[in-house]
Structures are given as C-alpha cells and as structure tokens.
Amino acid sequence: MMAAWALDSSREGRKTPGGGSGSIDRESGELRKLQDLVRRKRGLDLDLYQEGYFRRRVEALVRSRGCSTVEEYAQLLEADPRELDRFVGGFLLKVTEFFRSPTTFEVLEKEILPQLISRKREEFSHVLRCWSAGCSSGEEPYSLAIVIREAWRRERQSLSALIFATDVDPMRLSEGRKGIYAAARLRKVKEEWRERYFRMEGDSFVVGEEIRRMVVFRLHNLQEPPPFRGLDLILFRNVLIYLRPELQRSVLEGFYQALNPGGYLVLGKTEVGAGLVPPLYELADAAERIYQRPVDS
Question: Measured between alpha carbons, how far is 4 from 259 in angstroms, rounded to an integer?
C-alpha cells in the first residue's frame, strides 16, 4: 500500500516514503475515499478539476501536514473539521484582491457598464443584474460594485444593481459577507475610492454599507445549473483554467443561457476561453477576455 500511495518526490531528489515512486493515482481506492469525504462534508467535487492541477494541489497539501500517504491525510481530515476546512481552502487556491487586473475593471467602468446603463434606460428597466461566479472572499464582487457606482456618477444615472456572488467554499463566503479586509488586499484601490467606499477599523478596511447592500453571497457548485437568469454581466475570472474540458463547456453554455441577449461574460486575462465557439459568444474585447451574447440571440 505504501508503494501505491507514496507521494512522488523524485523531482526534489528524494525517494518516496516506503521506497516507492510515482505520482498520485487519481483512480486509486484511498484517493477515492478522500474525494468522497470532501464531497460529502463540504460539497466540493474534486473530479471537476484538471488532472495536473488536481495532482499538484493534493500532493502539496498532503506534504504540508507532514503525512506520508493520502490515506493518512484522509484520516486527519476525517478527525478534524478544521483540517478539512484548510484542505478546501488550500485546494481552491485563488489569489484574490480588490481590482485584480485593473485594466479589466477600467474597461468595465468606462465602456461596458455605460452601454448596459444606456440599454437599461432604453428598456425602462432600473435594475442591473450581475454575477461574480467563483467569487472567493468577495473582493471581486465588491470591486464590481464600486465601478458600477462610479459609472453611475459618470453617466449621471442612479439605477439599482444586484450582484450575486457565489462560491463553493462556505468559509470564504463568510469572509465576504463580513466585508473586512487587510490593507494589502486594497493596494490597487484608488485612494479616493478607499475614502469613499471603505472605513478603517483598527488595521483593517471595512466595505461601506452602500457597496455591501449591492452584493448577495450564495453557495453554489459549478456542476449545478446557473441559479440565476436575466443577467447583464457575468464575471468568471481565473477559474475556468482549472476545470476539466467537459465542465468548461457546460459552464460556458450555462452562462450563455443565464445572460440576457447583449449581456457580457468576463474571463480571466490568462484564460483562452476554451469551449467558446464563435456562434455562441461574440468577442467584445480580446485583451481583457470579454465576450458578449449576441444582441439578436
């Protein structure tokens, strides 16, 4: 069992525990038990993730706790809910801060949102509906809320906006609802926006009420159909690249159905948009990976 389950440390010039070599086998029984445990207790389906990412994250997490085998690590997770929370947080490793990729938010504020606001005005509609999918601890949806308010100021419009913020990790959603962040997370926030939309509380920044009221946090697994319809804008950044190709296609097709005709989908700048076929979405901004559901669709 040790030979089958020992982690591959050959890249670091070490032999695996028990004298074995070779990397984690995703289909082996003990790893399946680990996956079942995580799915049952935290609702996270590890089968969704690409093989390379899956293997790297599991190996790193097992080693980080000083375990020699996946079976030993699974026993640790079963016995200690806090360790299970650490596993989920570590597996869903996501760099998060306010205004990550600032040029994307600049395009949203100055180009995309004015178009959507104008369309809402023409349709006599007063609510802008958005979705931040895979929102982690809330920095992205709050950043979107800020640029929406700034676009309103620029366009001299006062509409309502509802931003759904979803993630599979309940701990990160809880962080988002609290809206309290270390100063390092706000390093890309303009000084005037910090003063306008945040308040200091000790060494931390707290998101102001007018911004928090725009965001609704909700638990959602990407394997499930989109829980929202009639959306004007979806942000799904830096998550797609970790998903298996079949789920990529399913998620993107689901987003298409969730968007209003003329609605926009924003992917991460490092993502190539796997599964996006030209008849499905139109490319609105290649540099910022912004796509649009055709207006006449």
Answer: 46
Does residue 162 sit in the same domain as residue 220?
yes
Cα–Cα distance, 135 to 169 (Å, whole number): 10
Cβ-proximal residues to 24 (8 Å cutoff; 6+ apart), any chain: 7, 8, 31, 55, 58, 59, 70
Which of 62, 91, 120 is the endpoint of a domain? Answer: 91
- For residue 272, give its domain range: 102-292
Paired tokens of 111: 């180009």
Residue 189, CA atoms < 13 Å, CB-side half-sphere: 27
Helix (H, G, I), strand (E, B) or coil at 197: helix
What does the pLDDT read at residue 11? 37
Which residues pair with residue 282 across a beta bridge? 292
- Within a domain: residue 272? yes
On whether both 161 and 30 belong to a single domain, the answer is no
Give how many domains the chain has, as a whole number: 2
- Averages of pLDDT over each 10 residues, the chain, 297 residues: 33 36 63 87 80 86 90 92 85 83 97 94 91 96 98 82 94 95 97 98 97 97 93 94 84 95 94 62 93 93
- Number of residues that make up the chain: 297
What's the pLDDT at 23? Answer: 60
The CATH number that applies at residue 227 is: 3.40.50.150
For residue 95, count CB atoms less than 10 angstroms from its CB and return exposed for 0-12, middle for 13-18, buried for 19 or more.
exposed
pTM: 0.81
Q: Which of 91, 126, 157 is the last residue of a domain?
A: 91
pLDDT at site 103: 98
Three-state DSSP class for 139? Answer: helix
In a domain, 192, yes or no: yes
At CA 109, angle to CA 108 and CA 113, rounded to 5? 70
Angstrom distance (rounded) from CA 69 to CA 202 = 43
Same domain for 123 and 77?
Answer: no
Residue with tokens 């009420």: 209
